[in-house]
Write a structure and sequence with these properties.
Blueprint lengths: L1 H13 L3 H22 L2 H19 L3 H17 L11 E7 L4 E5 L3 E6 L13 E7 L2 E7 H4 L18 E5 L7 E5 L1 E8 L14 E4 L4 E4 L1 H9 L1
Parallel strand pairs: 2-10, 5-7
Antiparallel strand pairs: 1-2, 1-8, 3-6, 4-5, 6-7, 9-10
Length: 230
């Protein structure tokens, strides 16, 4: 058996057919390699790698669609997660905005978009605080006048039922509840507000949580959201 195997090995390695067989195998292997190389568009590969590298550099620099998506997701996470405020934070992030006569503070994590006052469609039989419905980013939502919600006179619609007097619509984060927005005359700034410990007096109404030394009415956002979602 050993002699037979040895003979076969010798025949493959040194017989008259060995050289043509090796040449055929090598030729077939070389042909497959050339075909694979020919099927790859190396210029397209290099362009794709360069493009991905540029996108990564833009992302790390805070630019481009990937960075925008990361920042948007981070903003949503911050908005959905209650923030812990201590002496180092300086207070609670608030939107500071004006009504007709009142300065308001609205906790920022409960707010979505802020847009210039869009056109308004009145709703017959709506309560006085509800001015009508508006459309923001393709979503139809009820618009409430914050002054009226808090017992003030508030804004008046135009005679033709179109746009209100100049102002802003602040979209609330209502989660799975009915979408809603607040009408405010002017948006001032975003600031960290240190909240007083004392509660607002009863005459301030159920939607005002406390009042700061500079006469800013800090809204009770939980009570406000419960109202507009009902």
């Amino acid at each position: 058996m050993d002699e037979t195997l040895a003979g076969v090995g010798a025949g493959l390695g040194a017989g008259p057919g060995a050289a043509p067989l090796r040449a055929a195998l090598e030729s077939a292997s070389a042909g497959r390699t050339s075909a694979v190389r020919a099927s790859i568009d190396w210029e397209a590969v290099h362009e794709k790698l360069a493009r991905r590298s540029a996108e990564l550099e833009a992302t790390f620099a805070g630019r481009g669609p990937w960075a925008d998506a990361v920042l948007a997701r981070r903003a949503d996470e911050l908005a959905e997660t209650p923030l812990l405020h201590d002496a180092e934070s300086g207070g609670t992030p608030m939107l500071v905005a004006h009504g007709a006569e009142t300065l308001y503070g609205l906790e920022l994590r409960h707010l979505g978009q802020i847009v210039p006052m869009p056109r308004l469609a009145r709703v017959p039989g709506a309560p006085p605080a509800m001015l009508g419905v508006i459309a923001v980013a393709g979503r139809v939502m009820r618009l409430y006048d914050l002054d009226r919600l808090c017992g003030g006179l508030g804004a008046l619609p135009a005679a033709d039922g179109g746009a209100l007097e100049p102002g802003y619509a602040v979209v609330l984060r209502t989660g799975a509840g009915r979408p809603a927005a607040l009408r405010l005359r002017e948006v001032d700034r975003v600031a960290d507000i240190v909240l007083p410990r004392a509660a607002a007096p009863a005459e301030a109404g159920p939607l005002v949580r406390t009042i700061t030394a500079d006469r800013m009415a800090i809204l009770d956002m939980a009570a406000l959201l419960d109202f507009v979602k009902s």
